Give the backbone structure.
Amino acid sequence: MSTFDDINQRFQEALRGIGVRDSERAVTKILISVQNQSAALTPIARTSNLVNSYYRKVEPSGSGYRGLLWNEATYARKVHESSGRLKGTPRPDINGQPQGNYWDPMGEPKFFEKGIEATIPLLPQILREEYSE
């Protein structure tokens, strides 16, 4: 798997290759795609805190816009970087209440990086839809 910097560089190259005009709506649609792709792979525990802690921001940057996407859960990085070796094994009960299994239902390590990777091939379609409106 590529490092995050490698993925980000490929993402930027894909955008340049398409000849993107920076627009706030286009950047927002791209961030939503990355967020959706990442959320589908984010491990979900009883509270769903991790999957519900994504935030995005679009702000002016030079001649266009810049998008930021992050997860505010304090443990997000640790979960993202973990091996996932406990996937499917039961979590310890808390006060006699089952907590489900680790990494259920579709969780994967590197879920954020994989969400970016999954969005790269979708960029032409997202931008075509944006600029044809």
Summary: The chain has one domain: 4-83+104-132. The CA atoms of residues 87 and 102 lie 5 Å apart. Helices lie at 4-18, 24-39, 76-81, 111-119, 123-132. The mean pLDDT is 85.
